[in-house]
Design a protein that fits this description.
Layout: E1 16-23, H1 30-37, H2 46-62, E2 66-75, E3 86-95, E4 100-106, E5 114-121, E6 130-138, E7 152-161, E8 164-177, E9 182-197, E10 200-215, H3 222-225, E11 229-243, E12 254-268, E13 271-285, E14 289-304, E15 331-332, E16 335-336, E17 341-351, E18 369-381, H4 389-397, E19 401-412, E20 416-427, E21 437-443
């Protein structure tokens, strides 16, 4: 009858879960996914079964080995000796293809964008193992290679193991460090394990890199030129990440703390101890105005074979705004030498676009834009362990760089941050390269 409607109400009746099936497994071993569906067995009512089924579906999808998972909740009328309130739950899964390919552009804070072609074999042996092979080329590279000729290669094997994962990686990467007029080729491997402890992510790995450093041009400063050649770094790296922010690129609430320790000298001819730390906290008022405070610092003590590629560099459009990328601190000729310690800090106020203020949060693509005002500070210095704490504190606080400005931020596809800022450097030293005016930047992390 025209204009009529029917409302269906599902009663929350007591039920008994009789059977749970996973249908569609071809390559996947059943023991790998059984733990993901066990919560369904504890359901006592229909609503419990429905909610637990959705929860289990999300766990199955998070494995990364299924294209889709459908859930069917049905009675057990066709089974012998089944209780009257018996229910069966069926998970219909569709596995991903054996080989998946992609071509994309990747960006980072310290390197120019590069194109990446990737072949991924998910669920290699049926228990979530993955094998990924990448080839890449850095755009605007000075290596002289053709745009379509790859310069970087990597192969990564990952094996999940009950809440953790083991990774083996082999690689070759080329980097152009134009702020110091040298290029570096890294060849080597990495073996590591990653897991979660009390909601925090821990990574422990051994890294072995054979590094080859070459001058980019004939004007490379002698202080950099004398460090060119081959070196072998063998190091143990541990990192801990406590991530409680609601968004990686443009957080509105929560906090983030990341600490990383590296001990080099477990073999090889390079020896140092390095510690870095990042922290960020975000808070929002009126669901529109967001305050973000962040800091990043690091210190290194080296005693054998340390070169320019091991040191810290600061400056750039997403970290110390108003300064060119990695162009702050000690310099020889036109080339920057890096330092053994640094600190950076930032304070931001984010707001929606002025003409979009009243509609912000409605799900439009304009939600990815923010205007912001910022203040950045930082310093690049060396630590001398033979001197007093007061002397090292003075080194950290002398010649502090400071900048401020306003700008526009865009969250690009939830994977990168694009900024266009008008910067005003407030404090700098003559050797720094400053940007007084418009500055454009693309990257993932920011200070």
């Amino acid at each position: 009858m025209a204009g009529s409607s029917k409302e269906i109400v599902l009663d929350n009746k007591d039920i008994e879960i009789v059977k749970v099936h996973i249908s569609g497994l071809v390559k996947t071993k059943s023991d790998y996914v059984l733990d993901d569906i066990k919560p369904v067995f504890g359901s006592k009512t229909f609503l419990d079964a429905y909610q637990q089924s959705l929860f289990c579906r999300e766990k199955l999808m998070s494995r990364g080995i299924f294209k889709d998972v459908d859930v069917v909740i049905d009675t057990t009328d066709g089974y012998d000796n089944a209780p009257d309130n018996g229910v069966q739950v069926v998970f219909n899964v569709k596995e991903r293809n054996g080989v998946v390919g992609s071509i994309s552009t990747e960006m980072s804070n310290t390197e120019r964008p590069r194109w990446v072609a990737r072949l991924l074999s998910p669920n290699l042996f049926g228990r979530g193992e993955t094998l990924s092979t990448d080839i890449a080329h850095q755009l605007n590279s000075t290596t002289g290679n053709h745009l379509y000729q790859p310069t970087d290669f990597s192969a990564t094997f990952m094996k999940p193991m009950r809440g953790s994962s083991v990774k083996l990686r082999l690689l070759q990467e080329k980097q152009d460090c134009y702020w110091s007029s040298y290029g570096m080729t890294i060849r080597g491997g990495e073996v590591g394990v990653e897991g979660s402890v009390k909601g925090n992510t821990h990574r422990l790995s051994w890294v072995g890199h054979w590094r080859e450093l070459l001058c980019l041009n004939r004007n490379t400063a002698f202080d950099v030129r004398e460090q060119m050649g081959h070196s072998l770094k063998s190091s143990i790296i541990h990192s801990m990440t406590m991530d409680r922010v609601d968004d990686v690129i443009l957080p509105m609430r929560g906090g983030l703390v990341k600490m990383e320790e590296e001990v080099a000298g477990v073999g090889g001819d390079v020896s140092f101890i390095k510690e870095t730390m990042e922290a960020k906290v975000a808070a929002t008022i009126f669901d529109k105005i967001t305050f973000v405070a962040s800091m990043h610092c690091g210190v290194m003590v080296g005693w054998r074979g340390v070169s320019v590629c091991d040191k810290f560099f600061i400056g750039g459009p997403l970290t110390l705004r108003g300064f060119e990328l990695n162009s702050v601190g000690a310099r020889s000729g036109g080339d920057y030498l890096g330092s053994g310690a640094f600190w950076l800090s930032g304070l931001h106020i984010y707001t929606p676009l002025p003409f979009y203020w009243s509609r912000f949060g409605g799900g439009s693509w304009l939600d990815n834009f923010r205007t912001h005002a910022f203040v950045n500070g930082g310093n690049s210095f060396d630590v001398n362990i033979t001197e007093s704490a007061g002397a090292n504190f003075n080194a950290a606080t002398n010649n502090v760089r400071l900048s401020c400005g306003i700008g526009l931020v865009y969250k690009f596809m939830n994977s990168a941050r694009i900024e266009l800022n008008f910067c005003v450097p407030l404090r700098n030293v003559p050797t720094d390269k400053v940007v007084n005016g418009l500055q454009f930047g693309i990257g993932v992390t920011s200070v």
